[in-house]
Design a protein that fits this description.
The protein has 341 residues and is an alpha+beta fold. It folds into two domains: 33 residues; 295 residues, Tachylectin-2, Chain A, CATH 2.115.10. Helix content is 16%, strand content 37%. The chain has five helices and 27 strands. The strands form seven sheets. Strands 2, 3, 4, 5 and 6 form a five-stranded antiparallel beta sheet that branches. Strand 17 and strand 18 form a beta hairpin.
């Protein structure tokens, strides 16, 4: 075992001991201060740009996006006794640029982003965002349904949803309503929208009350009952990098977004939030890296190089952190009652 491994094990043991012997208030405080940890290093979080894990309801299968400059594909992995399996290309992906899968809470379908053409034999359209055109990189939301033998054929969501060539970051509520982001027509900044599903049809998408296009708001992740939402933004205090914010909803509507703080957020980009099916874990993508101190040993540097080759390379990787302490902390600030069904 490397010296880093021994230090990590000692740290985990000390944390477990302190929580076990401390009074409840101290244990809760320690839980609230949990720092994010890397999710499945070298497997799910690999050498590429890995993001947006979408879990089946039992939590034993995950779909996520893996990207390189000219490649974007949705991968599939299964949980076993020894951890997550080596990811494979999902059956519905691999022919076009696919990313950002989002699972319906009941697991009956999955919505994702793709540049595949509207009709077979066609070419992908051009996208337009961040003030410029992106040839061949248009995007739309597509759905695949779960069948008895696996996944069905991809279906493009209706034009009411795909009303531009730059639709991204779907997330699905329990009633089937879909949230997503698209550029604001005036400012060009990404803005968050919701489309209500009623009687099997999507109604006209509406902008979320707290997202007006004044700054970039991206990657919504909504609770199944729509009582809270976590998203990325460059609003204050995150003006130089993308940070994570939480916002709660009650009978009066959405409240004011709250910054998730410097323990969750880093000086790098933090976005693409996702939840575990039991709402106990927040997953998100970050460019953060493991801090390195000096002086160091040659053995430590050798271990660092192996870690860098596996995942620690300042590209997006998937990180995880306990969700409920974060919600409890910020729900109190919002002065709202959060109901988890």
């Amino acid at each position: 075992m490397t010296s880093l491994g021994r230090v990590l094990l000692q740290s985990v043991a000390m944390l477990a001991f302190s929580v076990a012997v401390s009074p409840p208030s101290i244990a809760i405080a320690a839980q609230q201060q949990d720092a994010p940890s890397i999710f499945s290093p070298g497997v799910i979080s690999g050498a590429g740009h890995d993001a947006a894990p979408a879990f089946t309801p039992d939590g034993n299968t995950v779909y996520f996006g893996r990207q390189a400059p000219e490649t974007a594909v949705i991968m599939e992995s299964h949980r076993g006794v020894n951890g997550w399996s080596e990811p494979q290309i999902a059956s519905f992906s691999g022919e076009w640029s696919d990313m950002e899968p989002s699972m319906a809470p009941d697991g009956s379908y999955l919505i994702y982003v793709s540049n595949r053409p509207v009709r077979p034999g066609g070419k992908p359209g051009d996208g337009f965002y961040n003030g410029k055109s992106w040839p061949g990189k248009g995007s739309a939301l597509w759905r695949v349904r779960r069948t008895a033998s696996g996944w069905g054929a991809p279906e493009r969501l209706p034009d009411r949803i795909n009303r531009s060539t730059s639709i991204y970051a779907p997330t699905v509520a329990a009633d089937g309503s879909v949230y997503f982001m698209q550029p604001n027509s005036k400012t060009g900044n990404f803005q968050l929208f919701r489309a209500q599903l009623r009687d099997g049809q999507y109604e006209e998408p509406q902008p979320l009350s707290f997202s007006g296009g004044e700054q970039n708001d991206v990657d919504p992740a909504v609770a199944p009952d729509e009582s809270f939402l976590i998203f990325g933004s460059r609003r204050e205090p995150a003006t130089k990098s993308m940070d994570l914010f939480v916002v709660f909803r009650d009978a009066k509507g959405w409240g004011t977004p709250q910054w998730l703080g410097e323990v969750v957020n880093s000086p790098t980009s933090d976005a693409e939030a996702r939840f575990s099916p039991d709402l106990q874990t927040l997953y998100f993508s970050s460019e953060r890296t493991v801090p390195q101190g000096y002086p160091r040993t040659r053995e430590q540097t050798s271990a660092d190089l192996k870690r860098i080759a596996a995942w620690d390379n300042s590209l997006y990787n998937v990180w995880e952190v306990p969700l409920q302490p974060l919600l409890a902390k910020h729900r109190g600030k919002a002065g709202r009652e959060l109901i988890i069904k």
